[in-house]
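Title: Comparing notes on inverse folding

I've been comparing how different people in this forum approach sequence design from structure. To keep things fair, I'm posting one structure and asking everyone to reply with a full sequence. Here's the target:
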């Protein structure tokens, strides 16, 4: 799949191109809006808004006037107004920096499924395996049980991505859930900051590591007790069941 990356910052474009290449994408990178408009046709455009010669919004408007190529805006602008304008002009998705390559690849695949469904045929049904409906039902329950984890009053359901505390459903963002589920994968174990960033964000993640601290703080607030996530000075974090919370 051919991608056109419109990004003037070498510090971002370099690792981003390398990461996308690892996933099998062919990336043509340009630094300006005018170069983007003159570039050969691509299967999808990754468009930064803060370009040196013209606003990315204008690039999007011009591209959309003569092409149906899918466009994903990637930018440091996170204001709702920018997202709305970009989407109304015809952008297919909007991703705010910082982000990881893995998240971007997921967005690319999702946009491609929507805009080119013929490239993603639905899987055909397979014949039932031996053992009959009872065996299949038992296997489904066993798989479901493995997806649900109980830690004191905390329950993590990886199948539904739901988290409850004392029976109350917590409103977690996708990244907050991923972070909690990762730490809960081995309760009590100490995970380094880099291990967490690699697993929850991306091995090619670029952006301030402060984002990890922000997510940990948000999780502690929603869990209602900072003791759930302990800081191990100079290393990272670990998930623990606070005293008095065990059933």
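Reply #1:
Here's my take.
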């Amino acid at each position: 799949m051919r991608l056109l990356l419109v990004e003037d910052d070498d510090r971002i474009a370099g690792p981003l191109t390398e990461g996308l290449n690892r996933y099998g994408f062919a990336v043509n990178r340009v630094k300006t809006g005018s170069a983007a408009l003159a570039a050969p046709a691509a299967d999808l455009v990754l468009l930064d808004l803060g370009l040196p010669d013209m606003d990315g919004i204008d690039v999007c408007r011009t591209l959309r006037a003569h092409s149906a190529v899918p466009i994903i805006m990637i930018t440091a602008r996170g204001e709702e107004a920018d997202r709305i304008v970009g989407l109304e002009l015809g952008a297919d998705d909007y991703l705010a920096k910082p982000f990881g390559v893995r998240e971007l690849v997921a967005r690319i695949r999702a946009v491609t499924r929507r805009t080119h469904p013929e490239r993603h045929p639905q899987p055909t049904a397979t014949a039932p395996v031996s053992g009959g409906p009872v065996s299949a039902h038992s296997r489904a329950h066993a798989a479901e049980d493995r997806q649900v984890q109980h830690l004191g009053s905390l329950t993590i359901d990886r199948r539904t991505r739901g988290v409850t505390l004392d029976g109350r459903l917590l409103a977690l963002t996708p990244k907050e859930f991923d972070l909690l589920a990762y730490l809960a994968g081995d309760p009590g174990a100490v995970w380094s900051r880099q291990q967490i960033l690699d697993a929850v964000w991306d091995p090619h993640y670029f952006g301030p590591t402060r984002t990890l601290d922000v997510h940990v703080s948000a999780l502690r607030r929603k869990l209602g007790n900072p003791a759930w996530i302990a800081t191990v000075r100079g290393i990272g974090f670990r998930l623990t069941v606070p005293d008095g919370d065990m059933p």
